[in-house]
Amino acid sequence: MNVKFEKTDAVNGVLTLSIQAADYADKAKKALNNFCKNAKMPGFRPGMVPKSLAQKMYGTDAKAKALNEVLGEALTNYIQENKLPVLGEPMTSESQKPMPVETTEDFEFVFDIALAPEFKVELDSKDTVAYYDIKVSDEMVQQQVESFAQRNGHNEKVDTYADRDILRGNLVELDAKGNKKRNGLVVEQASVMPSFFKNEEQKKLFEGTQLNTPVVFNPTTAYDGNETELASLLKVDKEQVAEHAGDFKLEVLEISRYVAAPIDQKLFDQIYGEGTVKSEEEFRAKIKEGISAQFQNDSDYKFLQDARAYIDNKVGEVQFPEALLKRFMWEQNKDREGFTEEKLDEEFPKSIQELKWHLMREQLVEQNQIKVEDADVKAAAIEATRFQFMQYGINNIPDEYLENYAQEMLKKREQVNNLVDHVINRKLTIALKNVVNLDHKSVTTEEFQKLLG
C-alpha cells in the first residue's frame, strides 16, 4: 500500500491511497470463509457450502467489505500518525475515477482534505476585557422574601371577603323575578374568585361580603361571556352556557384566604434547611448571596461572549477551505427537510464563525491546561438539577435526590455533551479572568439586559 499526501495550498490537501490486491486479500478471504461457515442454503448442510459457489455468490461483497476496512484503517492511521489537522472528514475527490469492484484488483483512492488554518491565540494582562458586576438592590431582596413567603403560605378561613379570597357555597340560578328558577341550575360547593372577574361592577357586588350572606350576581357579565370560565363555574358544556345567561345567587358558606408565611424560623428552615439561617438579617443576607451568585453566572456568560469577540478581532481574518467545507456541509445536511443551496449559503458564514471559535477555544484550553474529569461532569449535572428546583423556590433538596436526578441526566448522551461543553466554558472563563485585565463596570439589571441585546 502506498499513501501520499500533498498540500495544494495552506488549507487544502489531497490524500492518495494506492491499495493492491495483497493489501486486502486476507480480509476478503476471511469474510468469505465466515460466509461459508454460517450460510444456510437448500441442498447443503450448515457450513458446507462449497467455496466456489460462495465465491460466485458473495465474492464481490466480501472483497468490497475487506477493501472498505483496509481503506478506513489506512485513512485513520495516516491522519493520526501524521497529525493532520483535518476539518470535518476526508471527501472523495470529484476527480476520482470509477473503479468497478468486480473487475479491479489494484485501487487508487483520492480524497480532498480540509485543513485547519494556522494561527496563534496570545493573551496576557495587557489585554483588557470588560466585566459587568450586576448590582443586587434591596428591592430585589425584598421581592424574593415576599416570593418565599407566598410560596410557603397557607389557606385559612375568614368571616369577611377581601380581594383575592375564594368564596365557596351553593350557586342557584334565578328567574327574571329574582326567585329560584324552576328546573334551573344548582351547583353545590361552587368556588368563586371575584378578583378574576372581567367586569368591575360585578366585582363590587362582593365587597365586604360576610359569611352566610347570599350574593346575587351575573356570571355571564362577570366573565364577559367567556365560555370556558362559565362552563367551569356552572359545571355545564360550553354549548349550554348561553342557556344560563341570567342572575345567580351564591349562598356563601365559606371564605378562604391565602396567607403568606410569616418571616420566622420555620420559613428559614423550609427554604435553607434547619438551623442554616437563624434571623431575618441572615435570611436576607442569604437571599442576597444567592442572587449575587446567579448574577455572577450571568456576568461570566457576558464576559466569555466579550472575550470571544475580543480574541476574534485580535486574531483577525483567517483563511478557511471554504469550498471544501461547503461541500462537506451540503453532504451532511442535504437530506434535511427544507435544506436548499440558498439555505446552505445562509447558514455557512455562521458555521465558519463557530468553527473559528472552536479552533481558538481549543488553543486556549490547551494553553490553560484545562481538563474535564468525570467528577466535573457529575458536579455540573447536580448543579443543573439544583438550579431547576430553585426555579420553583425549592432550595433545600437532599443530596441523595439531587444525585438521583443527576444520574438520570447522565444517561443521555446529548445532555452529557452539553454538560461537558458547559464545564469547558466555565473553566475557560475562570482561566481567562486570571489572564486578561478585567475592566470592572457596575451596572443595574436593566442596563445589563440592554448589553445582552
Could you explain the architecture of this structure?
The longest helix has 36 residues, at 280-315. Strand 1 and strand 2 (12-19) form a beta hairpin. The chain folds into three domains: 2-114, Alpha-Beta Plaits (2-Layer Sandwich); 128-144 and 268-452, Trigger factor, domain 2, CATH 1.10.3120; 154-259, Roll (Chitinase A, domain 3). It is 49% helix and 17% strand. With 453 residues, the protein is of the alpha+beta class. It has helices spanning 21-38, 51-81, 138-151, 200-204, 219-222, 227-234, 265-272, 280-315, 322-333, 341-367, 374-390, 399-409, 413-435, 445-452; strands spanning 2-9, 12-19, 91-92, 107-114, 128-134, 154-158, 166-173, 186-192, 214-217, 248-259, 437-443.
What's the N-to-C terminus distance?
Answer: 57 Å
Major sheet:
5 strands, antiparallel
Q: Indicate the percent of residues in helices.
A: 40-55%
Task: Tell the overall outline.
Answer: elongated
The CATH class of the largest domain is identified as: Mainly Alpha
Radius of gyration: 36 Å
Helix segment tally: 14
Order of helices and strands: EEHHEEEHEEEHEHHEHHHHHHHEH
Structural class: alpha+beta
What's the CATH architecture of the largest domain?
A: Orthogonal Bundle
What fraction of the residues are assigned to beta strands by DSSP?
Answer: 15-25%
CATH topology of the largest domain: Trigger factor, domain 2
**Spans of at least 5 consecutive residues with low confidence:** none
Number of domains: 3
Write down the overall mean pLDDT.
92
